[in-house]
Design goal:
alpha+beta, 11 helices, 31% helix, globular
């Protein structure tokens, strides 16, 4: 069964059977984040042990735990063992779960993972009744964001709510809609960013081999490519037109530490870069402000999950939140942030 868009010569993700999905592109980043006991996850655990961090030590256990089998070299394609999850039909009452969900959102935001729309997020219970929350498709990362909405976890002007990554989690929250669950969610998010502020730089420096793996860059959404065909010559650059004319959704990539963009031309061995692509690459996000990500991101999350709550307040550990008719307020240690709603 074919899944998703076609790229690089009509190649697409395929569900082989009930157990495996074949992905004809780099699966290294998913392996890094989602394979049980990957060196990335182990480094996260060790980093937390050496910090004065108040996150629950089991927050990583809510992430999907997948198996990966490479095809060829460097995990440039491969098989992923499929993980089924059942919908959650009863409220999740454990505050520690909501804290873990917040920490996962913090992890994805800090590492600039994006294209995290609804289909790329797993939320549910596995065959062992274990609660799972996290991404199952990681191609685009290491962008320096200042807002959670840039990851596509939250709805925005260009992304409808039901297509956003946190929509499934919001539906679970709506089973109870209590401020007492928003507080640990926000605590997990903020506490992660505080504890792991320097982790990304530490990890990149310790493992320079990650510079050798391609990172997808999305210039336009699939919907845009399909709806703007009547402006084919004016709206898209020549490299996009080249791929569209072959029936593909354009696919570009870069490497960590570089803005130079590439795409596959005619065969997977013919990698092309051009001046027009490099002009586009200079417009990519390069503004990184973790303080803004912490402040504005937490306000975005609070506003999204409390949209059906008119008044309320809650406390969790060293965090307190308040919502009135027109205002939301977050207090975390000595920080205080507010926004209209």
């Amino acid at each position: 069964m074919n899944l998703g868009d076609r790229h690089n010569g009509q190649k697409c993700v395929k569900k082989i059977n009930k157990r495996y999905i074949y992905k004809p592109r780099c699966i290294y980043w998913e392996k890094l984040f989602l394979e049980k006991n990957s060196f990335f996850l182990n480094e996260l655990k060790d980093f937390q042990k050496n910090k004065e961090c108040h996150l629950n030590k089991d927050w990583l256990t809510v992430l999907p735990s997948l198996e990966f089998h490479e095809v060829g070299e460097k995990y440039l394609s491969g098989y992923v063992k499929y993980q089924n999850c059942d919908y959650i039909s009863a409220p999740i009452l454990g505050e520690s779960y909501w804290e873990s969900f917040g920490a996962v959102i913090g992890l994805l935001s800090l590492f600039g993972v994006y294209d995290l729309h609804n289909e790329n997020i797993l939320m549910g219970r596995d065959s062992n009744n274990k609660i799972i929350f996290g991404p199952i498709d990681i191609e685009c990362l290491f962008e320096n964001f200042t807002l959670v909405s840039q990851t596509h976890l939250l709805p925005s002007k260009i992304l409808l709510e039901h297509k956003s990554g946190l929509y499934k989690l919001k539906m679970v929250f709506n089973l109870s809609s209590e401020m007492n669950f928003i507080a640990p969610l926000l605590f997990g998010y903020i506490e992660f960013l505080n504890c792991f502020l320097n982790f990304k730089e530490f990890f990149i420096k310790k493992y320079p081999q990650i510079f050798n793996y391609p990172i997808r860059v999305i210039l336009h959404s699939t919907e845009c490519y399909k709806t703007k065909l009547n402006q084919f010559n004016d709206f898209f650059n020549s490299e996009e037109r080249d791929q569209i004319s072959k029936g593909d959704i354009p696919y570009f990539f870069k490497y960590l530490g570089s803005k130079k963009l590439y795409y596959m031309n005619n065969s997977s061995k013919n990698i092309t870069s051009s001046k027009s692509l490099n002009i586009v690459s200079n417009k990519l996000c390069d503004n990184h402000n973790t303080n803004s990500l912490k402040k504005m991101g937490s306000l975005q999350i609070f506003n999204y999950f409390s949209d059906n709550i008119t008044f309320g307040s809650a406390k969790y550990k060293n965090l307190s939140i308040l919502k009135s008719k027109n205002l939301i307020i977050i207090k975390y240690d000595k920080d205080k942030w507010a926004s209209s709603c």
